[in-house]
Amino acid sequence: MADKKFQVALDLFTIEDAMRILEQVGEYVDIIEVGTPLMVAEGARAVRTIKDAYPTKTVFADIKVMDGGGEVPKSCIQAGCDMFSVLCASDDATLRAAIELAHANDVMVLADMCNVKNMEERAAQVAPMGPDYLCCHVGFDRQATGADPVEELKRLSGVSTPKAIAGGIKLSTFKAAVESEAQDIISGGAIFNAEKPGEVARQMREILDAYNASH
């Protein structure tokens, strides 16, 4: 089985802030997420800047495509992203177009289940389309309700597509996320809002490495 991955979500608003955090945490992560706020604020330039600075890392553009699956991601692909996101709540035609575009350009697709009500049914529909990851994502505005992404991820156990998990994962819950079915564990605010982001990322890396070494 392939080693599980550690992804940092840079849900920030400037490239400068993103680079400042990456200086502290970049060595510990496998995947660098150009978060949706950063994509909105800075556009594909953020993807290009981060990929140029970290060419060996997987750079993920969290653009959450909802329409124009074959068109909207093009600027991020041209900027050098290795993966982008499309919403499972979008139309099947959008999903298929996004996946086709990505794979034609040797780019991966993360299909995001954010705010999908019947995750089991939708996962069974989306998985055959060929996304590289299905993401169980407890959105930012839902996290205050106490929704647990580790528990919600169990609803995707019926599909074999590799899974990602996101939504308020912090150091105290990172081990449970690593021990779940997820192949990609995503943490954002718990890292970049920390007093010492590098220390939090280092401890998360140690948890992940210990798991990978024992499996």
TrEMBL record:
Q: What's a single GO MF annotation on this record?
A: hexulose-6-phosphate synthase activity
* EC annotation from Swiss-Prot or TrEMBL: 4.1.2.43
Q: Name one Pfam family in it.
A: OMPdecase
Its pathway is: One-carbon metabolism; formaldehyde assimilation via RuMP pathway; D-fructose 6-phosphate from D-ribulose 5-phosphate and formaldehyde: step 1/2
SMART domains this protein is in? Answer: OMPdecase
Q: Where is the Orotidine 5'-phosphate decarboxylase domain?
A: 5-204
Span of the signal peptide: none
Catalytic activity from the UniProt record: D-ribulose 5-phosphate + formaldehyde = D-arabino-hex-3-ulose 6-phosphate
Alphabetized UniProt keyword annotations: Lyase
Top-rank taxon, per record: Bacteria
Q: Does the keyword Lyase apply?
A: yes
**Protein family:** Belongs to the HPS/KGPDC family. HPS subfamily.
List the protein's name: 3-hexulose-6-phosphate synthase
What organism, scientifically named, is this protein from? Paratractidigestivibacter faecalis
